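Re: beginner question about structure tokens

> Can someone show what the tokenized structure looks like for a real chain? I only ever see the sequence side.

Sure, here's an example I had lying around. Input first:
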Amino acid sequence: SLINLAEANQSAWLNSSAQGFSNMQSNSYWSSSSYANNTVNAWIVYFNGGNVIAFNKSNNDYVLPVRGPN
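And the corresponding structure tokens:
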């Protein structure tokens, strides 16, 4: 999982050498999922605290391309 609620700052945790990411920002990142109740919104994750909310898709936020294992 990209979220560890035991950690206060998700981006710092992901940037640690054990997690294998680098240059993660303490900002919001888009998910790929639309909000079912209002599809002009999509889910975003705040990597400074782990909160997840629905937000208008017209807003500028970070994206994080990921892939599954080979």
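Each token stands for a local structural state, so reading them left to right follows the chain. The first strand starts at residue 28 and ends at 34.
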